[in-house]
Design a protein that fits this description.
The protein is of the alpha/beta class and 205 residues long. It is built from 6 helices and 8 strands, in the order αβαβαβαββββαβα. It starts with a helix and ends in a 5-residue tail after the last helix.
Length: 205
Amino acid sequence: EAVRIKERGQATEVVAVSIGSVKSQDTLRTALAMGADRAILVKTDAVVEPLGVAKVLKRVAENEKADLVIMGKQAIDDDCNQSGQMLAGLLGWPQGTFASKVEFADGKVRVVREVDGGLETLLLSRPAVITTDLRLNEPRYASLPNIMNAKKKPIDETTPEALGVDIAPRLKVVCVAEPKGRAGGIKVDTVAILIEKLKNEAGVL
C-alpha cells in the first residue's frame, strides 16, 4: 500500500522497517524488491513484546520524520493486535486500524476500516498510524530484475540499545494449555428430560 501511495505521487519515500534477527533481512529484501526505497533492520535476537515493538518503531518514526506509518493489524506468531495501537498512543498520533481502503484528501487520510457491523470511515490528520486489513489491496509479486537489484541495496542496521529503547519483557507466560475437547452428545427420551438437563447440567435455562 505504501508503494501504491508513492506511485500516485502522494509520498516521496517508502522506508521498510523490521525488528528481529539477521534472518529479517530476507523480508526487507522482499520489500525493497517490491518498491521500497530504503530498509532499516533493528537487530535483536530477543523476543520483542508488542510494547517493545511500539517503542522501537516510535524512535524510528521520529528519526525518519515519518508522515504515515503503515503496519499489519496483528502478528502471525502471538496474534496480539497491539503494536499499532500502542505506537499511535506513544506518538500521540491519530490511528486507523483494520484499514480496507486508504485515500489522501486535502492533507488528510481517509481510512475505511472493517468493524463488526460493517464499514466505518475515518478522516485522520497526518502524521498518523494505519494498520491494514486483508482486503486493503492485492499483494504484488516482485519481478526477477527487482529481486536481483534489491540484493545490492544496503540495509541500514541499528539495535534497540543504539536507539535508546528498553525492550525488556514486561509479561510472563504462566502456562499454555489446549482447550478441552468437546464431549460427545447424548440422546434423551422426552422433552421434559431435555429441559431438565439444559437447566441443571448445562445451566443455559
